[in-house]
Write a structure and sequence with these properties.
InterPro entries: Nict_dMeBzImd_PRibTrfase, Nict_dMeBzImd_PRibTrfase_bact, Nict_dMeBzImd_PRibTrfase_N, Nict_dMeBzImd_PRibTrfase_sf. The chain is an alpha/beta fold and 342 residues long. 50% of the residues lie in helices and 9% in strands. It has two domains: 54 residues, Nicotinate-nucleotide-dimethylbenzimidazole phosphoribosyltransferase (CobT), small domain (5,6-Dimethylbenzimidazole Phosphoribosyltransferase, Chain: A, domain 1, Orthogonal Bundle), CATH 1.10.1610; 269 residues, 3-Layer(aba) Sandwich (Rossmann fold). α1 runs antiparallel to α2, α4 packs parallel to α14 and α11 crosses α12.
């Protein structure tokens, strides 16, 4: 699972950079849009890039044992309710995706509910009902972790086969910012106090309790965090492991990914550990308000496209950034070159 990933072509990056410099615009005038345009061309492997028309989002849903221990402002019953809301096209990410022509697929990987009556394809990859409370026990068994990663790999292959040019990994699960913070802390060697945020909006007492739980989880995992599969087993969840497998598989296939908030970025950190070099195929859709996300993005060398104070999850921040990605690609392909001006 730790085979390295081939990076995007340096030659294509150089060609894209040269084309950007040759556009009929003042040097550097496009700012981050210019940098993003070069990234799109590089990961596509062609200059100029083609329009980014086919964007596909997969939401990995699951519940977390820590949600029973005061880390969230909402009950776990919200998770299955939101899965049904995605299917109705009424979630925030659904509205954004409909505006921007982005497909949305939701999968129950570890929801603590049978989701009676939902389409069979939603539950086809289910690993278990909920994941363990990570400060007291492992989130998963080692076999469940490997199966979750394999699910993510399978789903990535399906989305790529369906024509995806750009993938987004979304998330749904009450309590999921707690394992996400733990995974990032373990991977970066940081204490809970530096990575733990308010998630869905817990108060000061809730934040203190959440920080304590993350630190207990890190202490319990101990030296096991040196191995990425062991880290996901001890501190993750079925949905986070599946998301990590999804992102790693996308990078191995040379398909770029637009990351979302702290859950998505935690999965990206783990994907880069499972498949070293995967992060070169990722771009950061937005900056969330969670401290762990900013720390992890710095570690991955990624700068967010949007900074809107969002903390929703679902893939919503990444989907909101899709029009910017599309604009960047079109600028590099359609703006006149200085040499064309005569």
């Amino acid at each position: 699972m730790s085979a390295p990933v081939s990076p995007p072509s340096p030659a294509v990056r150089a060609e894209a950079t040269a084309r950007l410099a040759a556009l009929a615009t003042p040097p550097g005038a496009l700012g981050r849009l210019g940098e993003l345009a070069v990234w799109v061309a590089t990961v596509q492997g062609q200059v100029p890039p083609v329009p980014v028309d086919r964007v596909r989002t997969v939401i990995f849903a699951g519940d977390h044992g820590v949600a029973d221990h005061g880390v969230s402002a909402f009950p776990k019953a919200i998770t299955p309710a939101m899965v049904r809301t995605f299917l109705l096209g009424k979630a925030a990410v659904s509205v954004l995706a409909a505006q921007h022509g982005v497909s949305v697929r939701v999968l129950d990987i570890g929801v603590e509910d049978d989701l009676a009556g939902v389409p069979a394809e939603v539950t086809a990859f289910k690993i278990r009902r909920g994941s363990g409370a990570i400060h007291l026990e492992d989130a998963l068994t080692a076999d469940e972790t490997r199966r979750s990663i394999a699910v993510g790999e399978t789903v990535a292959a399906e989305e790529i086969a369906a024509g995806a040019q750009l993938l987004i990994g979304g998330d749904m699960g009450i309590g999921n910012t707690t394992p996400a913070a733990a995974l990032i802390a373990a991977s970066l060697g940081l204490p809970a106090s530096e990575v733990t945020g308010r998630g869905t909006g817990v108060d000061e007492a809730g934040l203190a309790r959440k920080t304590e739980i993350v630190q207990q989880a890190l202490d319990r995992a101990g030296s096991r965090v040196t191995d990425p599969v062991d880290t996901l087993t001890a501190l993750g969840s079925a949905d986070l492991a599946a998301a990590a497998g999804f992102l790693a598989a996308a990078a191995r296939a040379g398909v770029p990914v637009l990351l979302d908030g702290v859950i998505s970025v935690a999965a990206a950190v783990m994907a880069d550990r499972l498949a070293p070099g995967a992060a070169e195929w990722f771009a950061a859709g937005h900056r969330s308000t969670e401290p762990a996300q900013a720390l992890a993005l710095d570690k991955l060398g990624l700068s967010p496209i949007l900074d809107l104070g969002m903390r929703l999850g679902e893939g919503s921040g990444a989907v909101a950034a899709v029009p910017v990605v599309r604009s960047a690609a079109l600028l590099l392909s359609d703006v006149a070159l200085l040499s064309d001006l005569g």
